[in-house]
Design brief:
- Helix 3 crosses helix 12.
- This protein is globular.
- The protein folds into two domains: about 210 residues, 3-Layer(aba) Sandwich (Rossmann fold), CATH 3.40.50.620; about 80 residues, Tyrosyl-Transfer RNA Synthetase.
- It is mainly α.
- Bound molecules: adenosine monophosphate and tryptophan (TRP).
Length: about 325
């Protein structure tokens, strides 16, 4: 069972990233050796600062290890350290149609936020397909917002297989049962996001405990008093999901426990649960950041493993597509 996922090294990682994605990567180490890629080539498709990119790549590596990714039980690497991704993306771009890419909702959302809309932003899902398909991936753990990209990857794989012969496994998308879409604490209709959300409504994984408390206590809820999920209660439902994941309890148990308690007490408890969830991660992150050479070493080992895993598939692609041998 091959598990693969990617995460961008831009922006700070938030509670939605942790619940929707990072937690799933960590858990998947129990069953298989997941391949987790820091997708720096994806991050350059929108306006960015080169110095920040270098720094955030190392910072994200530290955060992932601090969250529980163990370099001995997974393959953690930086996308640009394995040049096979860029090569495979070019080849897959000829079995992807302009119309398919034009329908991608993430492209439309991101393009609206950019002054300069690059071709790279448009073909971004093709590079994502290359990431996934190079590793003969069975399952891709992601948040709900990535479902459309993984479905496109499946179509690309099937098209390539039928035109050039069976080359790729067709991957499945895996979203968590709870928390696949954590919403902005200030605007419960929007997903929590560093670029599209509000600052007060986005809990960063590296926020100070008091900042976390302030953000959660200011969460927008409804005018009722019932700690329950349901129509018109999106804000409370989001907090119940966060509480459920942070304390490992079923949402029903949380509803029963806060029956008649009111929102104030509930929000304070959610805040404490998130502070406790992130405290050990933050501490470990700070330690890891003290030793950039060790992080570089871990990433070099990861890149070596990634090249070895993806090499045979890339060679197959060249062969099947009819390229003359060098
Ligand atoms: P990104 O930081 O955009 O590379 O996203 C990394 C992962 O986090 C992807 O699998 C996303 O689907 C997931 N993700 C991002 N925002 C959220 C959110 N608000 N709720 C749940 N998952 C999310
Ligand atoms: N597009 C994903 C995001 O914005 C990141 C990503 C790149 C990815 N390549 C991937 C996710 C491969 C899963 C598999 O979150």
């Amino acid at each position: 069972m091959r598990i693969f996922s990617g995460i961008q090294p831009t922006g700070e990682k938030h509670l939605g990233n942790y619940i929707g994605a990072i937690r799933q990567y960590v858990d998947s180490q129990e069953e298989s050796d997941p391949v987790i890629c820091i997708v720096d080539l994806h991050s350059i498709t929108v306006a960015y600062d080169p110095e920040d990119l270098r720094e955030s790549t190392l910072s994200l590596a530290a955060l992932l290890v601090a969250s529980g990714l163990d370099p001995d039980r997974c393959t953690l690497f930086v996308q640009s350290h394995n040049t096979n991704h860029a090569q495979a993306a070019w080849m897959l771009s000829v079995v992807t149609s302009f119309g398919e890419l034009r329908r991608m909702t993430q492209f439309k959302d991101k393009a609206d936020q950019q002054e300069f809309v690059s071709v790279g932003l448009f073909t971004y899902p093709v590079l994502q397909a290359a990431d996934i398909l190079l590793y003969q991936t069975d399952a891709v753990p992601v948040g709900e917002d990535q479902r459309q990209h993984v479905e496109l990857t499946r179509d690309i794989a099937e098209r390539f297989n039928s035109r050039f012969g069976k080359t790729f496994v067709v991957p499945a998308v895996v979203t968590p049962k709870l928390g696949a879409k954590i919403t902005d604490l200030q605007e419960p209709a929007k997903k929590m996001s560093t670029t599209g959300g509000t600052a007060l409504g986005t809990v960063q994984m590296l926020d100070e405990p008091d900042t976390i408390r302030k953000k959660i206590k200011s969460a927008v809820t409804d005018s009722g008093r019932e700690v329950r999920r349901g129509e018109g209660k999106e804000g409370i439902e989001n907090l119940i999901s966060i509480m459920s994941v942070s304390t490992d309890q079923e949402p029903e148990a949380i509803e029963a426990r806060y029956d008649g308690a009111g929102y104030g007490d509930f929000k304070s408890d959610v805040a404490e649960a998130v502070v406790e969830l992130f405290a050990p991660i933050q501490e470990r992150y700070r330690e890891l950041r003290q030793d950039p050479a060790e992080l570089q070493r871990l990433l070099a080992v990861g890149a070596e493993k990634a090249r070895a895993l993806s090499g045979p598939t890339l060679a197959n692609m060249y062969e099947r597509m009819g390229f003359a041998k060098p």
